[in-house]
Amino acid sequence: MARRKRQPEHENHERWLVSYADFITLLFAFFVVMYSISSVNEGKYRVLSDTLTDAFMTSAQSLEPIQVGEEVRTPDPVAGEYAAPDPGQGVTETPEPPPQAPAVESASLSQIASRLQQAMREFIDKDLVKVTRTDRGVEVEMNSRMLFRSGSAHLATNVLKPLRRVARILRSLPNEIRVEGHTDNVPIATRVFPSNWELSAARAASVVQFLARLGVSPERLAAIGYGEFRPKADNSSESGRRANRRVSIIIMATPHERAAGEIGAAPGRNTQ
After folding, report:
1. Is 192 exposed, middle or buried (0-12, 13-18, 19+ CB in 10 A)?
2. Residue 157: what pLDDT?
3. Which of 104, 143, 193, 197 has the most crowded Cβ, counting Cβ within 10 A?
4. What is the pTM of this model?
């Protein structure tokens, strides 16, 4: 019986399309990933950049700082340390009573500025603090890099010393006291601080709470956050942005001092 002749198989000339389609799909996925990586949030980049700078340029910060809205250890204004909370009380803290405030004494704005300047001399010499007479009273301006980590409202341990010195002077005064927080204009958007407004207000509140724990009458304290909207320098440079990140403690002039014209810069004298 004759064997049937085998027909040759038909060659598929379009098999390359399968490999080509796989390659295009992988290439598309690659570019999507690269695009997502290249989209950097400016606020988060600023926080990372400033944090790395602070880590190399400033001294160690507190591992147990003060944060607005969370339970903290009660500071001992005399020893300069924190008393550990009672473990049996859980999250409920029983703070130690604040130090007894001395009798209220009157002092002129010139005397207040002089006492603050003397108490803060070592920080003034390092360009971390400025004490000035303004049309509102006496202003103690503190650079935020000595107070907080970048993007945080935690008070650092190394700032407790100058704040105690300020509190000792403020405790006996009758003047109203405003604490104002300021930031630069670089946007920030985190879970805790949706904008610079919240960050500046939280920083001011942290300072207010600490002053109150040190015996400054809470009825005379106020915390204000201005965000980036009251800059003192040009935000287009790093030095300007650094100057704008600050917290100011304002000892307000009393009505009597305003009536007597004892506000504004002292003639012929610079208290910075």
Report:
1. middle
2. 86
3. 193
4. 0.62
pLDDT at 66: 46
What residue ranges in 84-159 does DSSP mark as E strands?
129-133, 137-143
Pairing of β 177-182 and β 246-252: antiparallel
Consecutive 10-residue averages of pLDDT for the chain (272 residues): 59 72 84 71 61 55 45 42 36 44 66 95 94 95 90 88 94 95 93 93 96 96 96 94 95 84 53 44
Six-digit token pair at 25?
Answer: 């799909």
Of 235, 137, 136, 223, residue with least CA distance to 184: 235
Indicate the CATH number for domain 107-259: 3.30.1330.60
CA dihedral sign of residues 241, 243, 244, 247: positive
Name residue 232's amino acid: K
172: exposed, middle or buried (C-beta count within 10 Å: 0-12, 13-18, 19+)? middle
